[in-house]
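Researcher: Next entry in the queue.
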Amino acid sequence: LRLGHVPTIVVSSAKAAELFLKEHDAVFATRPITQASVYLSYGAKGVAFGQYGEYWRRMRKMCNLHLLTLAKVTSFEGLRRAEVEAAVQRLVDAAAAREVVDVGERVGELIEEIVFKMVIGKGKEEDKRYDLKGVVEEAVILAGAFNLA
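Model: Structure for this entry, 149 residues:
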């Protein structure tokens, strides 16, 4: 079966799916290269969009060894705690003023502020050059767009 120019296999039984996923996993572990992956990930070379292989395995290992270690995650515990406490206080203040609050929006703002401070070292109010939330929303739309190429 082909979807545009992309050869596609449709598996309709659990036994066949198990065979594909367990016996031939390396063959099907790669991701398709899309226009979005090329633009969002330096020519589809990042961990999220990269092709499965030696380069991708080394990238994943570097992320696990340098970015996702317990020590690195723990080093931001104070920052996360302070931001969550501030967000909860803003919710308490809004409740005391009997204001309607969009909790989903507030959680998004909390995550954005934490990421800003972890990556850039400043809050979004201190450095307005970046629209992190807008960039992430656009990336999600682009990455999810159907592409037959």
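Model: The chain has a mean pLDDT of 86.
Researcher: Noted, moving on.
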